[in-house]
Design goal:
Keywords: Flavoprotein, FMN, Monooxygenase, Oxidoreductase. One of its GO terms (molecular function) is monooxygenase activity. Helix 1 runs parallel beside helix 14, helix 4 packs across helix 6 and helix 7 packs across helix 8. The protein is α/β, with parallel strands linked by helices. It has an eight-stranded parallel β-barrel with strand order 1-2-3-4-9-10-11-13, surrounded by seven helices. Strands 5-6 form a two-stranded antiparallel ribbon. Strands 7-8 form a two-stranded antiparallel sheet. It contains 15 helices and 13 strands. Helices cover 37% and strands 15% of the residues. The radius of gyration is 22 Å and the shape is globular.
């Protein structure tokens, strides 16, 4: 059987997300990012389209590499201003029953003890529909906001992240036994203290001393784990911890080897490589005819803001593009910012030479992924071809305008993919993890490292 195509919507609690300038389009509503009606309408649209989840990006810090100033990001709403994503989820969960929520949270500036409670709370309130995109950050502005001069070195951030994961696994999996909570009204006993265990952790990065997790076991205990790094150290981290991996790149030639590398790393440490679900970014623009789709794309492109696009790319790569000429070639630089975005336009495809003008065109609609334009039938053909060439399991669908592009996908593309037998006709039952991996798999199992910390009755 052909592999099922999974879809996440890719958004952020900000204006325009990865299509700088498109907030000026008359059909775009992302300028309403700071009001709940926008997010509630988006959640309902995604559930109508049976999207697996809403994947919420987040960035701590402002994009101030371009021109060594935040002015370009502020002028063009290049992910600034941006609000906290976690606070959106309860409202969206209340108007949906099946939509999952993968939310980005930066562990570099979040102590593990309160963070673990926050995620457990959301897992309870959503009845097990929470995922965590584990990131370590890439902006020096975020580090300065946390009282540091600059961010920790790239690979060192992942070493700290490994340590962080051990702490939260201990809290989520090792503190409360499954049957610790009795809710015994007759005896007046809510929790059996003998089944609640104290956690200890003492390392160079984190110290937890004789502490219990504050939340009773949630439906999934550990949220579904997403990870977004495809550098060599990022792949190593993903192979150990991730259940879903998000990657971006402009072509199948770039994505395919990244997918293969992570699956290979997972196999080396005894995990089933087929059970790490790979999602890559793609923007989809639909029309009832090819001409209508092309006209819509041209209309969108007329709203691209070049300065906003370069402000984003400067932040992603750590390179100040403000001093570059438009036809200047982009070359590789090694630094402590994110590395995948720069690799995409320097080393990822040896057959292509990128100029700054090309970067603006590429980033201007949907960020760092391919843009697919056409009728539902032709777009479905292109997506199926992409899946064959890359071995991905799903798409993180970025947008030019929102929620309009997601409405088009739900109403036009999803029926076509369903007709082809490549898309689920209905949601599976259970938690987000069960929807992704099968009935009865609400909790992580061995050989995933989280399972080794679980105490008491297994389940």
């Amino acid at each position: 059987m052909a592999k099922e195509i999974r879809l996440n919507a890719f958004a952020m609690n900000c204006v325009a997300h990865q299509s700088p300038g498109l907030w000026t389009h008359p059909r775009d509503r992302t300028a309403e990012y700071n009001r709940l009606p926008y997010w509630i309408d988006l959640a309902k649209t995604l559930e109508r389209g049976r999207f697996d989840g809403l994947f919420l990006a987040d960035v701590l810090g402002v994009y101030d590499v371009y021109g060594n100033s935040p002015d370009a990001a502020l002028r063009n709403a290049a992910q600034t201003p941006s609000n906290e994503p976690l606070l959106l989820l309860s409202a969206m969960a209340a108007v949906t029953k099946n939509l999952g929520f993968g939310v980005t949270s930066n562990l570099s500036f979040e102590p593990p003890y309160p963070f673990a409670r926050r995620m457990s709370t959301l897992d309870h309130l959503t009845e097990g529909r929470i995922g965590w995109n584990v990131v370590t950050g890439y902006l020096d502005s975020a580090a300065r906001g946390a009282g540091k001069d600059k961010q920790t070195g790239h690979d060192d951030r992942y070493d700290i992240a490994d340590d962080y994961m051990e702490v939260v696994y201990k809290l989520w999996e090792g503190s409360w036994e499954d049957d610790a909570v009795l809710r015994d009204r007759k005896r007046g006993i809510f929790t059996d203290p003998s089944k609640v265990h104290r956690i200890n952790h003492d390392s160079a990065n984190y110290r937890i001393n004789n502490t219990i997790h504050l939340s009773e076991p949630s439906p999934q205990r550990t949220p579904v784990l997403y990870q977004a790094g495809t550098s060599p150290r990022g792949r190593q981290f993903a192979a150990k911890h991730a259940e879903c991996v998000f990657m971006s790149g402009p072509s199948a030639k770039i994505i395919a080897p990244r997918v293969a590398a992570i699956r290979e790393e997972a196999a080396k440490i005894g995990r089933n490589p087929a059970e790490i679900l790979m999602f890559n970014m793609m923007t989809i623009i639909l029309g009832k005819t090819e001409a209508e789709a092309a006209a819509k794309y041209a209309d969108y492109r007329s709203h691209i803001n070049p300065e906003g696009a370069l402000a984003l790319m400067s932040g992603w790569t750590g390179i100040d593009f403000s001093g570059y000429e438009l036809d200047q070639q982009v070359r590789h630089v090694q630094n402590d910012a994110g590395r995948s975005a720069l690799d995409n336009v320097t080393r990822g495809d040896p057959d292509r030479i990128w100029t700054v003008r090309d970067v603006i065109e590429h980033v201007g609609i949907g960020g760092a992924g391919p843009v697919v334009v056409g009728t539902p039938e032709s777009v479905a053909d292109k997506i199926e071809d992409w899946f064959e060439k890359t071995d991905v399991d799903g798409l993180n669908v970025a947008f030019a305008i929102s929620p309009g592009d997601f409405e088009d996908i739900s109403d036009m593309l999803v029926p076509e993919l369903t007709r082809r037998g490549r898309y689920k006709p209905e949601y599976a039952k259970g938690t987000l993890r069960e929807k992704l991996f099968g009935d009865g798999r609400a909790r992580l199992d061995a050989p995933h490292p989280a399972a080794t910390y679980r105490v008491g009755k297994k389940g």
